[in-house]
Amino acid sequence: MVDTRRRVKLYVLNDERQWDDRGTGHVSSAYVERLKGMSLLVRAESDGSLLLESKIQPDTAYQKQQETLIVWSEADNYDLALSFQEKAGCDEIWEKICQVQGKDPSVDITQDIIEESEEERFEEIPDAAPPIELPPCELSKLEEISELFSSVLLSPVRREKLAIAIENDNYIKNLLELFHMCEDLENLEGLRHIYEIFKSIFLLNKNALLELMFSDDIIMDVIGCLEYDPNQPQPIRHREYLNTKANFKEVIPITNIELLHKIHQTYRVQYIQDVVLPTPSVFEENMLSTLSSFIFFNKVEIVSMIQDDDKFLPELFALLTDEATDDGKRKELVFFLKEYCTFAQTFQNRDGFFKMLSNLGILPALEVILAMDDADVRQAAIDIFAHIVEYSPSMVREFILQEANTQDDEVILMNLVIEQMICDPDTELGGAVQLMGLIRILIDPENMLATVNKTEKTEFLSFFYKHCMHVLTAPLLANTTDDVPCKDDYQTSQLLSLILELLSFCVEHHTYHIKNYIINKDFLRRVLILMKSRHTFLVLSVVRFVRRIIGMKDEFYNRYIIKGQLFLPVVNAFQANGDRYNLLNSAILEMFEFIRMEDVKSLITHLIETHYGVFEKVDYVQTFKVLKLKYEQQQDRLNDKPILDNIHQAAILHNSRFRRDPRSLEEEEEIWFEQEDEPEDGEAIVPVADMLKNKMEADLDHISKIIDGKKGHNDLDNKDVYSNTTSSTRPSNPLVNSNRTSSPPATPIPTKVASPPSPGLTPNSITRKTGIVGLVDYPDEDSDEDENDDDNSPPSKRVRLTP
């Protein structure tokens, strides 16, 4: 039986203040990871689709009306209502809501409802609402103060009133006096109440109170109040750490007192946010936004004040690049610069900031830092380099191109970065992964600029493949000198996998340069040696690389693969994998399926002719059977192509007779008679219809013999053939096999002996006339030639093969 207790109708209040029915479904309450909190979920009764997903907010006022209705507002003028079929289901959901908000389920409303106009009036006229009376600051009142502060957090108006009261009554300093008193008396209970009080003050989310607590004279006392967390068995000595272990170092003396104050304050406030205060719950995460804003604006001020100082940064970069600077000092300078760049990430005018760093020589300084032996310093330099590349890769590329004219390949910044990637000591190659991403940004044509005078893409890619590609591929080439990988440990395989990932990106985006490199260096053959690695992830990287090359559908690549038999390692790996259903099997099958889908004819032919013995037994997919079928169809088309070409050419000749211009007749006649092979006098031209009729089963020699046989038969019947010329003077038929003239026909054909030529006629004239008639049939064009014919002899007729 269907449970009807949770059956509800969902209503939404529209702009006309009318309730719209959004559907019927079943309601439940559950924790939603995306919303980070308990939520109400309504799924449609018809298809199970999600009608509502509403997080239960701690300060939202929910109302229960008429025992089966729950109403609340989620945003400005966005009201929702759930109408339950049964009272029991309404009570269950109401208990869940009250449990989240910490309310008694017996109430019909979870929060004090304040009209919007009333809230606005309170904001504009703070005195319109009654002020909150604060208890006196006494040890005996600490518990009462703590309960009061905690109770107002759910009401925005009461939070505002409490903040005003604390600020006006100088309450924070009075509370700190109680704190010192409790510490002197070792009153642990009182100290824990004070912790809850100051935690509530932070959650009031008021900037004025934060500025009071973060002033130089009381900030350490505030941190002391937060040492006595009731949830911790022992106090945490935050003040001791800040005063003794956290040392402030001035890498360059700071003369600006305000700047020095901001740096100290920001460090301590950041410590409070990150370490001292507990991780905010889902109900408190939005109540510390003012604290985050306070830190943000402090960092902006620090960056601005340092940038405005004309001496500080130039002196820093001078020390950074000075060879006389000791490594310890340089390390401190690098760490300061890293922290400074991190602060600048929040700076709005980052364009001007990075231009300033470029003018000061940040990139040459990074070259010096990357050459240091200290791994921590190099990692800090990589972090600084990442900030610059992610914001302005063009600036980095411009610097690299400029130094390429004056520096050796070994000390170019790009090669230093590649070497850092290759030499990452981390077994998981965390730094190498980061650097691979930065290199990818630098060689990505999508973010390269094209100006009127130069193209950044052309210049930089040409530079990269000439000066840097050999450095990037060196580990791979060094590891593939034999038929199997020289080193096959985990870290080396991880590095080679990263290099192949970067090269796959190049194949896709650097079509010209990477193609030349792969083909000229026979690079793919070396890559395929890694198919014999014992690490499957590296083998898969090789397959992805090959797949990316094939995906380009470039016949240069295809011919290179076919000529070098480069599918063999992939096929061997596929065969060795057997019928196992794993990533390697799927990746290789997908590659062959792509070849089939895209109908890459050259690769299909190569695969079937060379490797079909391996694929023939694979029956769990249809890929190879379809490849074989495509191959057979392709071969059939290739075998029929010469015949089809002859048909096509003959069809063109046949159709042209109906479009010939009479004025071009004489010129075409001359061209025809100047050819070495001319048709015989009165010889019939085999029409296209005969070729179609016989379906190309006989060759042209056989066709010509049939024609001669028919002519001989007509000679015996008509007794009037070739009366004006002899067989020795007739030109040969171009359609007849040349061997025919060297041997007599198999069956003699009786003919009438030709009479001498008539006066005034030459063999050429007769041939000329007859040749034209044999080529085309223009009944209106040969009247002049008819005057020269013998009136006593009947006109010769063409022997035609009827279709």
From TrEMBL:
Biased composition annotated in UniProt, kind: Basic and acidic residues: 708-720
Subcellular location: Nucleus
Annotated source species: Saccoglossus kowalevskii (Acorn worm)
Biased composition, class Low complexity, residue ranges: 723-734
Protein's UniProt keywords contain Iron: no
Biased composition (Acidic residues): 778-792
PANTHER family: ATP SYNTHASE GAMMA-RELATED (PTHR23318), SERINE_THREONINE-PROTEIN PHOSPHATASE 4 REGULATORY SUBUNIT 3 (PTHR23318:SF0)
Stated name of the protein: Serine/threonine-protein phosphatase 4 regulatory subunit 3A isoform X1
Region (Disordered): 708-803
PP4R3 EVH1-like domain span: 5-101
KW 4Fe-4S (keyword) present: no
Keywords: Nucleus
Family statement: Belongs to the SMEK family.
Polar residues bias locations: 735-744
Top-level taxon of origin: Eukaryota
InterPro entries: ARM-type_fold (IPR016024), EVH1_PP4R3 (IPR055236), P4R3-like_central_dom (IPR006887), PH-like_dom_sf (IPR011993), PP4R3-like (IPR051137)
Residue ranges of domain Serine/threonine-protein phosphatase 4 regulatory subunit 3-like central in the record: 144-633
